[in-house]
Amino acid sequence: MNNKNVSPKSLILICSILLSISACTLPSSNGTPSLPVTDFSAAAVQKIVARVNDREITAAELKRAEKILFANKPGLQIPMSLQKDFEKQVLNQLITTELLFQESQKLNIKDLDKQVEAKLVQLKNRFPDSEKYAKELENIGLDEKVFTDSVRRDLSIAYLVNTKIAPAITVSDEEIKKFYDQNPDKFRQEEQVRASHILIGVDAKAGAEAKKAARDKAEKLHAELLNGGDFAILARENSTCPSSKQGGDLGFFSRGKMVPQFEQAAFALEPGGLSNVVESPYGYHIIKVSELKKAGTTPFLAARNKIEEYLKTQKTNSAIDIFVGEVRKNAKIDVLL
Question: What is the value of pTM for the model shown?
């Protein structure tokens, strides 16, 4: 089932791709497969691919940046014919990041050590234990010291952006309203339902006996629900879907996000309605719909803050480009790739 949720970026990460590489943000441990371990050999570590003033960028850094970029963009594929161009683009981003970092060193950043320590704790807490954290560092070619230095660089650049670039960015009410009026497609809201389900999972290739046992269990649970059983409790105790931890709640979703059998049943229900047992390639579902959002257009006032944030991000990225362009004029940059 494919229920996608997108979280907005905070201002401190407004540098977008420029910082997404340099930040060395570890891939989340929420079940997304990590990329294969890269061979960071001694030769790769020592090879220099660029110099930015007196700072050298190694091939190992370049490969690590590529790996982090792929981890942050699942499904990204680069044809072999474009590999060289891709490497040059990533290297250019590393050079840009280095220029920003060097500029940040001209500032007095208070309590940077405490900020770094707090950020490291936050990142480590994303992992269930220290072993998985250490393994992820190893997978992207980092040790604790290099990772700590990377976090320090990220926070330094963020400070530069947030104190020297972002404060000058303003978005007027007229700009926000103009964007809303000129992009109606972005504010159309599709019909959505909020549903919970209990899944009795069974492999689609399982035999008739296993499928019958799963269906019988689903039918028994359905009967319990019709007799007043608590849906959330029965989901936590019986559902094989990860949503069982939330009492089966899948949140809101629109058409095209779930498998057809599940979608058809969910959208046919009224709020408070309970489906019969529904078969899908995942097994047998019992679906309960709690809320319905009809198709329509998001009102301007409801969209205003997000539009303002988006326009600020666009303007800030443009301002960063201009800032880096000025810094480049006085920098000594040698590309050796």
Answer: 0.63
